[in-house]
């Protein structure tokens, strides 16, 4: 079932506030400002397709920004791929500035700050893919985030055609169709990323970059330790907690939230495995460092929209567990 939100019947003085809330519900929370003094018009239709969120946005000129504050309170992490169906936009993420023209594909990562500036009325089709389900290495996602991909030939043209005809949702009772369509979108996107290949030359990573990578590796190695925390991570690397937090400011996620997210990802993957021994939910939670079953169930539902037991039998779990 799709959800349609429009400013058509909203009082003039409340349209922009309503629109900001509408985009937060349909896409992800962002700050939104209008670029003209004229009455604002906007419409968004959104729905679930398997594990994906598919939305069509039509609106007047605006600037939408996702900040570190929005990310800190996020309940889920997505990679977004959009098709500019009319109008133009400018995307800024990770220091990159990309002009998006009609027919182009644009890619951005909701776990790091970005802005989208639309100078005139526009329409776009956007698909939010759970970051955990995309299955691409971090370096490959970072390579395409904040970039425009021409949609005129190759896999770009194929993905544009697929996304523009993709239904916002499928009728109730068609979960198999929805899951297959969702898997096709993820596969096409991954193929497109691989097709683009590695950049000709990459800048030399900074010492801070190497330290961030070591911290991430340390977190992955110690996820099962209930005592893993920003304090223990900082101590292991002989730095202060304050400096550790400063290192991760550009990552768009706090160290504490990264630890929780990685633990949840491992729990979700294990709970979604098919044809394997079936441990209890509490056993899986404890294995990955969650000591409080009630807390685990609460944060799992906040991240995945389902309880751990509901997730175990869901179709979405198949995308992650493979």
Automatic annotation (TrEMBL):
<keyword id="KW-0804">Transcription</keyword>
<dbReference type="InterPro" id="IPR020449">
    <property type="entry name" value="Tscrpt_reg_AraC-type_HTH"/>
</dbReference>
<keyword id="KW-0238">DNA-binding</keyword>
<dbReference type="InterPro" id="IPR009057">
    <property type="entry name" value="Homeodomain-like_sf"/>
</dbReference>
<dbReference type="InterPro" id="IPR035418">
    <property type="entry name" value="AraC-bd_2"/>
</dbReference>
<dbReference type="Pfam" id="PF14525">
    <property type="entry name" value="AraC_binding_2"/>
</dbReference>
<protein>
    <submittedName>
        <fullName>Helix-turn-helix domain-containing protein</fullName>
    </submittedName>
</protein>
<feature type="domain" description="HTH araC/xylS-type">
    <location>
        <begin position="213"/>
        <end position="314"/>
    </location>
</feature>
<dbReference type="InterPro" id="IPR018060">
    <property type="entry name" value="HTH_AraC"/>
</dbReference>
<dbReference type="InterPro" id="IPR050204">
    <property type="entry name" value="AraC_XylS_family_regulators"/>
</dbReference>
<dbReference type="Pfam" id="PF12833">
    <property type="entry name" value="HTH_18"/>
</dbReference>
<keyword id="KW-0805">Transcription regulation</keyword>
């Amino acid at each position: 079932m799709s959800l349609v939100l429009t400013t058509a019947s909203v009082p003039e003085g409340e349209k922009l506030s309503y629109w900001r809330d509408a985009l937060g519900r349909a896409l992800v929370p962002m700050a939104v400002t209008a670029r003209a003094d004229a009455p604002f018009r906007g419409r968004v239709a959104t729905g679930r397709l398997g594990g994906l969120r598919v939305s069509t946005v039509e609106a007047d000129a605006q600037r939408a920004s996702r900040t570190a504050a929005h990310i800190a309170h996020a309940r889920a992490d997505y990679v977004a791929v959009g098709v500019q169906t009319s109008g133009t936009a400018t995307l800024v993420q990770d220091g990159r500035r990309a002009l998006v023209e009609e027919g182009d594909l644009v890619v951005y990562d909701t776990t790091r700050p970005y802005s989208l500036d639309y100078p005139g009325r526009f329409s776009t089709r956007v698909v939010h893919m759970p970051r955990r389900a995309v299955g691409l290495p971090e370096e490959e996602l970072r390579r395409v985030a904040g970039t425009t991909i021409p949609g005129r030939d190759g896999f770009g043209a194929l993905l544009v055609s697929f996304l523009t005809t993709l239904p916002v949702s499928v009728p109730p009772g068609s979960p198999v169709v929805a899951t297959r369509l969702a898997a096709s979108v993820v596969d096409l996107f991954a193929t497109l990323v691989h097709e683009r290949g590695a950049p000709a030359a990459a800048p030399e990573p900074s010492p801070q970059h190497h330290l961030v990578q070591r911290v991430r590796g340390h977190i992955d190695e110690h996820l099962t330790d209930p005592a893993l925390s920003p304090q223990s991570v900082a101590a292991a690397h002989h730095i202060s907690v304050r400096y550790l937090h400063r290192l991760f400011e550009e990552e768009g996620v706090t160290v504490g939230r990264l630890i929780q997210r990685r633990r949840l990802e491992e729990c979700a993957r294990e709970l979604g495995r098919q044809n394997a021994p079936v441990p209890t939910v509490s056993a899986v939670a404890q294995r990955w460092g969650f000591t409080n079953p009630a807390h685990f169930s609460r944060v799992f539902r906040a991240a995945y929209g389902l309880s751990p037991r509901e997730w175990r039998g869901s179709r979405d779990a198949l995308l992650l567990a493979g």
